[in-house]
Specification:
211 residues, alpha+beta, Arc Repressor Mutant, subunit A, Nonspecific Lipid-transfer Protein, Chain A, 2 domains, 5-stranded mixed beta sheet, two-stranded antiparallel ribbon, 9 helices, 18% strand
């Protein structure tokens, strides 16, 4: 790894995280949990195999990732985040929030994965440990269905469906993300095809635009 050679915490962090693809490798491990190499490659369309191997080696050397030779029935290498690696989550979440306005101008051939949408949507929760009763948000996009579950203990996300969600948002990923980010009001999102079912007050858990 090349170093900026500066005694500055920003520069030192970029020495570890600043290489192309590195933060996206962390994104995949934060979202998916322990991953096989093929899981990572699928979540990183466009990365060359040798470059992914190099980034994983660098992250291991920096103490952010460790590998496990998983026994049968997995019988393959699994890559895990260390505690230090998980501590980078606020950095990735902050980038998800900051970058959401940019998706309005995304290129039509940009790659997209369903779990990216889920991670970015959860990044706009007002509080990771909100008070009050548990609430469930169901997301349906052309990429698939996913769930955000919020309780006094924090928030969790998963791919799939919920039995009795407090609210269901159905539409294009870009529209849902811009709504939860406060880039669109509920009315503006509806004009762009969003279908909302359930209690709109559930959305108070997110950073919404004024009505």
């Amino acid at each position: 790894m090349r170093s900026y050679g500066q005694l500055c915490s920003v520069a030192k962090a970029l020495d570890v995280l600043g290489d192309r693809w590195t933060l996206l490798v962390l994104r995949e491990l934060l979202i998916q949990g322990p991953c096989r190499y093929t899981d990572l490659a699928n979540g990183l369309p466009g990365i060359a195999s040798n470059l992914l191997s190099e980034r994983l080696r660098n992250l291991e050397a920096s103490g952010l990732v460790w590998r496990e030779a998983a026994p049968p029935p997995v019988a393959t290498t699994l890559f895990h985040l260390t505690e230090r690696g998980r501590a980078a989550e606020p950095v990735v979440v902050a980038l998800a929030r900051w970058g959401t306005p940019l998706i309005a101008d995304a290129a039509p051939d940009d790659a997209i994965r369903g779990h990216w949408v889920l991670f970015s949507a959860a990044a706009f929760l007002r509080d990771r440990a909100p008070g009050g009763l548990p609430i469930t948000v169901q997301l349906h996009t052309p990429l698939g269905s996913s769930v955000i579950e919020i309780s006094p203990d924090g928030a969790s996300t998963r791919v799939g469906t919920a039995d009795d969600p407090g609210i269901t948002l159905e539409g294009m990923p870009q529209v849902i993300l811009r709504l939860l980010a406060g880039e669109l009001t509920v009315g503006e999102a509806a004009e762009q095809g969003l279908v909302l079912r359930g209690d709109p007050e559930v959305l108070d858990a997110f950073h919404l635009a004024p009505a």
